[in-house]
Amino acid sequence: AQSVTQPDIHITVSEGASLELRCNYSYGATPYLFWYVQSPGQGLQLLLKYFSGDTLVQGIKGFEAEFKRSQSSFNLRKPSVHWSDAAEYFCAVVLTGGGNKLTFGTGTQLKVEL
Amino acid sequence: GAVVSQHPSWVICKSGTSVKIECRSLDFQATTMFWYRQFPKQSLMLMATSNEGSKATYEQGVEKDKFLINHASLTLSTLTVTSAHPEDSSFYICSGFRGRSDIQYFGAGTRLSVL
Question: What pLDDT shows up at residue A1?
Fold first, then answer.
């Protein structure tokens, strides 16, 4: 079945440590790929997106993600985490020709220890 | 960036009453708006796609008579939960699609509690 998987429900890192959040998708064709962050009281904010081209994508707040076609993955990374990065992170896809509908992964809750 | 305003942010209602949630795109025209539902500690599930001036398209399993969606203008879509019951309690989120960018911009969500 077509799906978006975020294997890690919870992740805890120390402030200043590096971070990688995993995302895998199972679709026949390469979809459009997104990472969103959700903080309490705020709407989902787009961190970055991949449509085509360079497979390493830079986003806001120091985040980057790498698309790996062979692994059907789009993992989110940050070299040094700040306490304010604590939030819920969602990977999402839009199938090309899919009517712009976003399908979300189950989310990863990030906790940052000071 | 584009801003989507959602109102109210929190609403409590009695069972059997109806509740209306508004979603406005403040600085862009959203030809398409989407409505999602999010249960605690879970992901967002698409409920329906709303196109300006036409009937909404509902996802499988979503009752269109319970969740009435109106998209009367390019900047406003409303979701009305009719005859609400406690099982309708949830977090409802809207988004506006800014076509040229292929990006959805999200409102902050509405927490509905049905007593």
Answer: 62
Identity of the residue numbered A98:
G
Residue type, B110: T
Q: Which residues pair with A20 in a beta bridge?
A: A77
CB contact under 8 Å between A107 and B103, yes or no, is no
Query: Hey, which residues does A90 pair with through a beta bridge?
Result: A36
- Kindly give the parts of chain A with pLDDT less than 70: 1, 96-98
Segment B12-33, tens digit of pLDDT: 999 999 999 999 999 999 889 9
pLDDT at B100 over 70: no
Residues sharing a CB contact under 8 Å with residue B94, sequence separation 6 or more, in sequence order? B4, B6, B21, B23, B33, B34, B35, B36, B77, B79, B106, B107
* pLDDT tens per residue across span B60-71: 999 999 999 998
- Interface residues of B toward A, Cβ cutoff 8 Å, are 1, 4, 6, 9, 32, 34, 42-46, 49, 93, 95, 97, 102-109
What is the separation of C-alpha A58 from the centre of its chain, rounded to a whole number of angstroms? 12
B32: tokens are 């398409």
Tell me the chain B residues in contact with residue A45 when contact means C-beta distances shorter than 8 Å.
106
Neighboring chain B residues of A46 at a CB cutoff of 8 Å: 1, 103, 105
**CB–CB contact A102 B46 (8 Å):** yes
Angle at alpha carbon of residue B114, lines to B52 and B104, rounded to 5°: 30
